[in-house]
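seq:
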Amino acid sequence: MAEVDVVADDEAAPPPGAPTTDLLSLHESIAGVLATQGDWRRAYHHLKSAFDLARAGSLRDTLTSSYNRRYLDQWLHGPAVEHRGPPGIAIALVDLDLFKGVNDTFGHLVGDRVLREVADLLQQGLPPEAFCARYGGEEFALVIPDVDAARAVRIADTARIRVARHPWRRIRPGLSVTISVGLAHEIHAQPDRTVEPERQLRRADTLLYMAKRAGRNKVAYHDKESSQMIPRAMNTAESTGT
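struct:
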């Protein structure tokens, strides 16, 4: 039987942006052909590429293509977060405001598109080591390592403004989307101090709840003295104009 001709490895790659499932199938198919030809070295190379693609896909959210909760948990409990010193690490929990109303009014297909676009907007402008992960439902987590508290607040508020100013009406007339953010910053200055990512996540969740209670479309964070909001929540006199 004549050998099946197989293109070189670098020629087999589909163009950028090809779906991961297509790449996975391609590597598996090429590996099978190479194995029948006895080219075990190149077959192994393609099988390893298929494995790496499958693993990477398991760490991505299928709807938004951002990282998923599994990746977030692995990162927070991995060596990357252990014994970090100054300037610290920030974790922001982000929730879409009144998202149920978006689904009820415009339908779930529009809701899915909103989630995808919010994920893209949240990832814009993040520092190189930072990432966005879908935390669950309409909630996302931003993890920003090696950042001081002031810069973390600026990054979170810039994301809030970016979402609020996005031209949502081009998707559906009358559509508007805002987010609320709870931002917890922590410095692990002592070399022997144990990092507690769950505690930091709980702090971020508590602050997110405060941002919701303060009127939504806000960033809640804790400075040296007390919890703060951006924009600043109006008191009763200000809201009535008296």
